[in-house]
Amino acid sequence: MPSAGQGAGQGKPRWQLQGPAGNDGYVQEPSEPTWPPFRFHGGAGRRDWRADRDWQTRPDWPGRTRRWRHRGNGEPLRRDPEDRLAGGVAAGIAAWRGFSPTTVRIAFVVAALISQGWVVPIYLGGWLLIPAKDTEASIGSRARHDSRGIALAVGLASLLCVVLGLASVLNPWLINTYGWQQVISVAFLALVWRNAPDSEQAAMRRLVEPLESLGPGGTRASRGTVIRLSGALVLLGAGVIWLLTSHESIALLRPLAGLILVAAGIVLLLGPWWLRIARDLVLERQARARAEERADISARVHDSVLQTLALIQRRAGDPQQVVQLARAQERELRSWLFEGRTLGDGDATTFAEGIRQIQRDVEARHGVPVEIVTVGDCPLDNDLNALLAAAREATVNAAKWSGASVISLFAEVEPEQVEAAVRDRGKGFDPDAVPGDRKGLAESIHGRMTRHGGSVAVHSALGEGTKVTLTMPRTAAPAAPAGAAGGNRR
Amino acid sequence: MSATAGAPPRVVLVDDHGLFRSGVRAELGRQVEVVGEADDVAPAIEVIGRLVPDVVLLDVHLPGGGGQAVIAAVKRDHPEVRFLALSASDAPEDVIAVIRAGARGYVTKTISTADLADAIRRVADGDAVFSHRLAGFVLDAFAAAPSPEDVKPSFDPELDQLTSREREVLRLIAQGYTYKEIARELFISVKTVESHVSSVLRKLQLSSRHQLTRWAAERRLT
């Protein structure tokens, strides 16, 4: 299971499912790798890759150590709806430039305060014009053809203009500082609202839902809600009045107090709703993580377990093959479940891995279960490769000739030597009266071992099985004892 | 409450798979006396406390917590009840955890019926039972010389190292030898083999070796 490849493979279908079917705004970009937002495999590796990238492209940027899990990719700017609070613009920019989304969000808020709110329409403009991840078309490009949406946006904006104009009679400062931002924002928001893809619309609807329930036709108005609402309204009213009257007053602290009152009112009014949104976001992400995990597991179960079960049903008449299939499947599932290892076909790099490979190959080719126990591990070198080859030979021998129902392969890496013991409880043979071909094989085991400074001990008796003990001194250890052959045998 | 010679040991089966329990019950037949069954931690504690069997055949993985939970709860009131852990998993941390909680042995679910009955009898008699896998784990865990961080005030060299004879016995168990075969191979009696294995079990349960816990975690990563 190539981890990165599968991760990318999972990312795409999910988006295809969420987008409206057949909408040409959802053209996939096959060249762009899509990452699942949660790390299941190879998370560390991915981070390294990103870090390297940053080093090359912006070598003089300080503070890059605080990078989060998104890459500063060389890809075009895309919104990231997977990781959004509102439209995913901040997350998209963060991913694009390799910042932490939180940093970008804080920067946005600060900029909004400094620029008297101009960042809000800019953000909404970004929402409109930047395509979502994995898509080509932006919301704006679709909004162009939505004449009713444009009419609605213009209508809402002019309506707001009128309202603000009326309000400015009371307080001209308000329209001068915040008016145009509001008008543009409302227009943009209307366009986004009408033209966002279904998935984003659903999310937005959920964000607004609690507001609707606040209205007169709201659901069960519990006493707490009533108290909260009236408290909020009192605070808001007091704050607004204070603000509106402030321009006639000289007291500098008054607007501040008014602002605080308004803020308190807003928090009281919308606080529970914010909490709910935050919780929903967390839940949504967890659900997505679970869904991906389930997809991973079901893919694994389908690829291996179900296939094997089907094969077993088809070959029910051949017990030997059924056992072999079940055994191979068990081994694969075990290594995946308990050792977090996937069965690669690549070359082994450590001794224990080599032993496991022998087990796999012999079981697959000869259909005899091989029970392996490995103690310790070390990297392979020439001598150990020879030991592995000899052990493989001995195991294959046992599988072919002994008639035993199971072969035991024991390998232990010790500081001075490496030992492998192949044992079966099969027919056995009389070592003094070995048939020619068997002798040849024993020769090949023996020759291999002695050429590399190792030794072989063969114990066998008719009817009692065979045990081949292979011992190889480790080159790293100085002066390995030459007489260590079969060291554990009395 | 150990089994008297001749009488089959009284056994309680704890496993969350009903099919597996009935399979074991049917296969063990008259070789042991299955007096009760349970499918989760809480019922297991209740059944064991009520029946006080000689041996509990305990699945390592139970829905309501690991097998360790059962051992820990029962040990308080009935220290004489012996546990044989049974698992489909070869994950070292599971095995080590349940052994260190107090199980007298560990076998995999692929074990043959005859071997299982034999293992139950052995555990009922107070001996230890190691599967070849567990023997490999133990050799691995005790392989390296104690690291400096292991040598602390509680460090007991006698507990924290295997004797060469114990290593030999474990090596042979890891290669699938039966106790009888080991005895013949090493020119010792079966009783001596049993006492070596029991001593390894004791060390496994009592050793404060850091290696034992750390090693299981490390293996997970490789």
How would you describe what is shown here?
The complex is a heterodimer of chains A (490) and B (222). Chain A has helices at 3-18, 43-57, 89-97, 101-114, 119-129, 139-143, 147-170, 172-195, 198-214, 223-246, 253-314, 319-338, 351-366, 382-402, 436-451, and strands spanning 370-375, 407-413, 417-424, 455-460, 466-473. Chain A is α+β, with helices and mostly antiparallel strands. In chain A, a hairpin with a 3-residue loop joins strand 2 (407-413) and strand 3. In chain A, helix 5 packs parallel to helix 8 (172-195). Chain A is elongated and about 115 Å long. Chain A starts with a helix and ends in a 17-residue tail after the last strand. The model of chain A is unreliable at 1-70 and 477-490 (pLDDT under 50). The interface between A and B is medium-sized, with 23 and 22 residues.
Give helix % range of chain B: 40-55%
Per CATH, the superfamily of the largest domain in chain B is: Response regulator
CATH topology name of the largest domain in chain B:
Rossmann fold
Distance between the termini of chain B: 44 Å
Helix share, percent of chain A: 55-70%
Number of helices of chain A: 15
CATH architecture of the largest domain in chain B: 3-Layer(aba) Sandwich
Structural class of chain B: alpha/beta
Q: Unreliable segments of chain B (pLDDT under 50, ≥5 consecutive)? A: none
Mean pLDDT across all residues of chain A, rounded?
Answer: 71
**Strands ordered across the widest β-sheet of chain A:** 1-2-3-5-4
Oligomer: heterodimer
The greatest interface between two protein chains, and residues involved on each side, is: A-B, 23 and 22 residues
Give the biggest sheet of chain A.
5 strands, mixed
Number of helices of chain B: 11
Fraction of residues in β-strands of chain B: 5-15%
Written as H for each helix and E for each strand, in order along the chain, the element string of chain A is HHHHHHHHHHHHHEHEEHEE
What is the name of the CATH class of the largest domain in chain B? Alpha Beta
Q: How many β strands of chain B by DSSP?
A: 8
Strand order of the largest sheet of chain B: 2-1-3-6-7-8
Cα-based radius of gyration of chain A, to the nearest Å: 35 Å
